[in-house]
Amino acid sequence: MEKVKTVTNEWLEEANASILFIANRPQVVMEHGKGMYLWDTDGNKYLDFIGGWAVTSLGHSPKVISDALLEQSGKLVHASPGFYNKPMVEFARLLTGLSGLERVFFGSTGAEANESAIKLARKYGAVRKNGAFEIITTKRSFHGRSLATTAATGKAGWEHMFAPQLPGFVKVPFNDIEAIKQAITPNTCAILVELIQGEGGVYEAIPSYIQELRTLCDEQGIMLMFDEVQTGIGRTGTMFAYEHYGVLPDVLTLAKGIGGGFPLSAMLAKETYNLFEAGDQGGTYTGQPLAMAVGLAVVGEVLQRKLPQQAAEQGAYLLQQLHGIQERYGLTDIRGKGLLLAFDLPEPRGAELVSACLHAGLLINASSPSTIRLMPALIVSKAEIDEMMSLLCSVMDRIYRGD
Ligand SMILES: *Cc1c(COP(=O)(O)O)cnc(C)c1O
């Protein structure tokens, strides 16, 4: 049978021949994007509910990002990580003011922000806690793909990945305060958790769990670190997910949505943890002026357009639509906050559904064989949600019900 897509696409042939294999990618090459849509090199159009993997918070190719890049690149592309620069100072002021944490270190990826947090926790243990070095993390968590963050990650099957792994991470079940209490020893310097486990399948932390963690950490002099790489900057309906819990962490990591697609991350920390000495931490691109200018533009736009509030409203509408089709398709455990949502399928046929949706012009993510995750841009409209629902239903009618 002839495929709809031309398999002779020269871009695709070259991609398959020259890009190092890391994943079974769909056989398309993306070319341009606008708002909620992407187009491939064959001219096919896709409605994007992956949102650049919870990254393109303002949609695809927003004018504010191109304007910021154009303006900043005409002034200063790169000074040196050895100098402060103007957009770096402005962005630091904005983020520290918004978060209530007084210090910030800038990086390019979520893994790098978490590496910085891990180093800061170990530094804290070394100088203030008799050499304590252990960091407690949770099962089913995701913290990145560098060697330290791989070791910190609680994904099943990752325990022996790239062995020998960096020691010093203790994994406990998520949402289990007793397990944390049991795991704390004099060697514990920090606890690192996500408030919603995003890659793990969109599982929310219980408020009392996070509140009890704060009390426990205060009592025992342990750093409380929130990985908000996926949940930060409006995604869950508030600027930071910790606002839902009324708990301020000691360290907060941000990436994904903060750059709207430009590589940018941040680790924020309380003044009392401003502990690095010269040479402990750095990076050629820390505070990179183009990244800083984009971050300022993106976060400024998120604030000005009240996108956290919009994410809460559109997320509630999307949830309501999903509940409306729940029975028809046997969907279970519809969950999430704001525009970070997921549901389970009656059978583990997620990959098949994702692929069928792609061919129908809709991009969705299967975070596991039986879980579908939706994380569209924060600018998504009700009309685009309706369009997504109708595409999803027509595909599910075909593959599940044979209609
Ligand atoms: C994506 C993600 C990371 C890793 O970010 P990268 O930019 O891919 O390094 C870390 N933590 C969480 C919670 C994430 O969702």
From TrEMBL:
Gene3D superfamilies: Aspartate Aminotransferase, domain 1, Type I PLP-dependent aspartate aminotransferase-like (Major domain). Keywords: Amino-acid biosynthesis, Aminotransferase, Pyridoxal phosphate, Transferase. Pfam families: Aminotran_3. Pathway: Amino-acid biosynthesis. Its cofactor is pyridoxal 5'-phosphate. InterPro entries: AcOrn/SuccOrn_fam, Aminotrans_3, Aminotrans_3_PPA_site, Class-III_PLP-dep_AT, PyrdxlP-dep_Trfase, PyrdxlP-dep_Trfase_major, PyrdxlP-dep_Trfase_small. CDD domains: OAT_like (cd00610). The keyword Amino-acid biosynthesis applies. One of its GO terms (biological process) is L-arginine biosynthetic process. This is Acetylornithine/succinylornithine family transaminase. It comes from Paenibacillus silvestris. The lineage of its organism: Bacteria, Bacillati, Bacillota, Bacilli, Bacillales.
